[in-house]
Amino acid sequence: MNEKTKGMSQTRLVFTHLRAAIVGGRLLPDAKLNIAALAEELDVSAGAVREGLAMLEAESLVVSEPARGFRVSPISEPELEDLVQARIEIEKLCLAEAIRHGGLEWEGRVVSAHHRLSRLAELQHELPQTLLSEDWTTAHAEFHHALVSGCPNGWLLRMHLMLYQQSERYRQLSAPLGGDQRDVRGEHQALVDAVLSKDVQAAQALITEHLQTTGRLLVEGLRAQAPKAAKRRA
To answer: Could you state, in chain order, the average pLDDT of each consecutive group of 10 residues for the chain (234 residues)?
Structure first.
């Protein structure tokens, strides 16, 4: 492995490790990111850490300030509301394009992802309502990505992925499942039925309602977590 390839591999390691920690809620909002400490922890160069952090900043997962370095991006209720609105619009566009252009392979991905998510949802009911299993979380992401994967527009898909990751970060920090307030499995099934029926209007209406409900629960979770966050900062 030459030095250039080694440097790229180290940068990707930093980027992947920190993105997973931030999106998964293990690195909390506003947490300081010490370059020297991260380089030692991950056994990489300080330059690789800086490059990885710059990539994360491009995805709005970290922020940098002159003379203060990098920190995990903060969260707020207004930002969450903007995020939900943006995600709805992008996901509607992606779904419409996927329905218009997706073929049998796309339909197969949707059915397969939904089947796996449904089976894991049965196991999820055995966990406390405030705990999301890692397998369910992964399957949920794969399901939403499968729904739009028939979209041929790469820019829309990249925006979809970025917005999904940001939403997932909020969900992991507040972890609301909705409990008796919603039928998530029913919502997912309705989405599958609409896209397989090639009903663009129905699919867009369903994804709008689905994400609005999720957004409302995330706001409630964020408000519930606010006292704990304030206590941590004190």
So the answer is: 55 92 89 93 93 92 88 92 96 97 96 93 58 78 96 96 91 64 87 96 97 88 65 52
The predicted structure's pLDDT at residue 219: 86
Q: What is the pLDDT of residue 16?
A: 92
Q: How far is CA 229 from the centre of its chain?
A: 21
Residue 25: is it exposed, middle or buried by C-beta count within 10 angstroms (0-12/13-18/19+)?
middle
Residue 69, H or E segment: strand 69-72
Say yes or no: 48 and 101 in one domain: no
Quote the tokens at residue 44: 């990489």
Provide the domain limits for residue 56.
Answer: 3-72
Considering its fold, how many domains does the chain have in total? 2
Nearest to 161 by CA among 146, 150, 145: 145
pLDDT at 128: 45
Residues 64 and 87 in one domain: no
* pTM summary value: 0.80
Q: Which of 46, 72, 98 is the last residue of a domain?
A: 72
The pLDDT, as a whole number, for residue 1 is 39
Domain CATH for 23: 1.10.10.10
Residues in contact with 152: Cβ distance below 8 Å, sequence separation at least 6, in sequence order: 97, 101
Q: What is the dihedral sign for C-alpha 152, 194, 81, 127?
A: negative
Sorted by sequence, the CB contacts under 8 Å of residue 61 that are 6+ apart come out as 18, 19, 22, 23, 72, 73, 165, 166, 169
